[in-house]
Amino acid sequence: MAFAELAHYAGLPPGVLNVVVGDGETGKHIVAHPGVDKIAFTGSTEVGRQIRIATAGSGKKLSLELGGKSPFLVFDDADLDSVVEGVVDAIWFNQGQVCCAGSRLLAHESIADRLNEKLKARMERLRIGSPLDKAVDMGAIVAPVQLERIRTLVERGAAAGSPMWQPSWACPAEGCFYPPTLFTNVNPAAEIAQVEIFGPVLVAMTFRTPSEAVELANNTPYGLAASVWTENINLALDVAPKLKAGVVWVNATNLFDASAGFGGYRESGFGREGGREGMWEYVKSRSEAGGRSSEGARAGAAGAAARGAPPQLHDGTNGDGERHRADASATLPAQRGDGSGGAVPLPTSDLPPINRTPKLFIGGKQARPDSGYTITVRGAGGAAVGEVGEGNRKDVRNAVAAAHAASGWARATGHARAQILYYVAENLAARAAEFAAEIARMTGVDGADEVEAAVSRLFTYGAWADKYDGAVHSVPIRGVALAMHEPIGVLGLVAPDAHPLLGLVSVVAPAVAMGNTVVVVPSEPHPLSATSFYSVLETSDVPAGVVNIVTGGKDALAKVLAEHDDVDGVWYWGSADGVAKVERASASNMKRTWAEAQGAREWRAAGQGEGREFLRAATQVKNVWVPYGE
């Protein structure tokens, strides 16, 4: 309320800032209110998960700054006296009730014992009492229920066999006070090493090599902040990009400034506060603000009737999970092959004399679908023009595993990724007539312009691959904050049905240009462009696993991707109901989503089908704070 009073004195117009006090029930009503367009939440991961579920499909913009279990890495050349003061600031500041508290101490094995002894000596000198007393180091826990939770977790940690140490002095008898606590030789999988305690409890473990330190640091569901202590700047700047954390402090902790973004990875949430990247959370492009020219008004689920698709085409599954396709004039049963490539006879067919069933594309290889089933693809007049495999959960699992195995793609230079995208564009251009004819068979309209646009889009993102870089922020320390654009990781891409080739390229190209590996679900009614496209990938030096293609039911496969805990983000263009399901399912591991209803975007327009919006969605910003000087 004091801040609101200051805003009033500063001349902020009435109604611009509104403060409502209350508990979680009040927040619940704010989240559910239809007049709210953007929600920014700071709090526990569990409540953030509830908000993600509650807002699914509502169209509300969401950014979440959630819990953490931040690592505090100390290498053997670090100044241990400075480290001790850094630990005090990291975990005992505000009694450890800070989302970015450095609650996991990872020390080089050779210096761990010395560091622990120095920490114990410093803990003995900490003063606990009223936070209004300037000579006090620690105040009280925020509430009795939180105090009880801390006690319970500490007791369970001690019972599990982790050595516990507390100072010899006693806490004040009155109030919710808890002493600073140190656990040593903690198993990395122990509950106290994985769960956010949100109290003055530090768990310590050791490592032997920098690579082991990174593995231990990343061994939690969270990814909010990290602190790296070493006198070797080469080592610090090698380790920092490898840490799954939105903020990394070198030889420091708890540094903040409005010019540098703050936010997390994984279950620590998504979105940023502060910095240029933080501003994007509160604005939208002019095309969004003014309303996009909607293809959806002219399109059914398969695409626009104006492009020659059958009128009112719908795709989905019935209650038994069987495939079905229908148009306004007829209802056809599922058209499945027997898994050997032979098609069930249809009333009309435009299939070639030698039937070819394109397979899935997983790990750089063509793979038969696990189900053994095929789906008939129909052209503009309803005739069968081909078949594709019907992917399922197991195929998605294999594709995600292949994408993870190709993680080296993120370490490739932007220049190297650019050259490969240029090569893909060149090879696609060489087969332009073939792809255009295939698009015409599926949609009934000339595909030459679409192929030309797809080639142009590949060149565009090839050019962006080594130019969409970060920034160096001028922060109020003797040092700099490096804003680094990092890939999200493994992205699940559910391509739009409209423009089967251009839509596919428009989502794949920016994702891989930024270093992500992808699992793509192509246009459901027109998937043959995607299955032909993988032969272009095979001849264009694209490493195995960078692009994986799984054909089948869009919404069924999208749900599997959204629920998969090894998928870091999902992009989806489909039905409004599908948008809600994807956003709701993504709450399992708080993955980032970009989901829009079919027809919300004009893919042929450069302002909507390509650009920085896609690059921002394909990256996350890590701010690395680097002090310098003796």
Automatic annotation (TrEMBL):
Enzyme class: oxidoreductase
A molecular-function term among this protein's GO annotations: aldehyde dehydrogenase (NAD+) activity
Low complexity: compositionally biased ranges: 290-309
Domain Aldehyde dehydrogenase: 2-285, 380-600
EC number: 1.2.1.3
One Pfam family it belongs to: Aldedh
Active site location: 65
PANTHER family associated with the record: ALDEHYDE DEHYDROGENASE-RELATED (PTHR11699)
Family: Belongs to the aldehyde dehydrogenase family.
Protein name from the UniProt record: Aldehyde dehydrogenase
UniProt source species: uncultured Gemmatimonadaceae bacterium
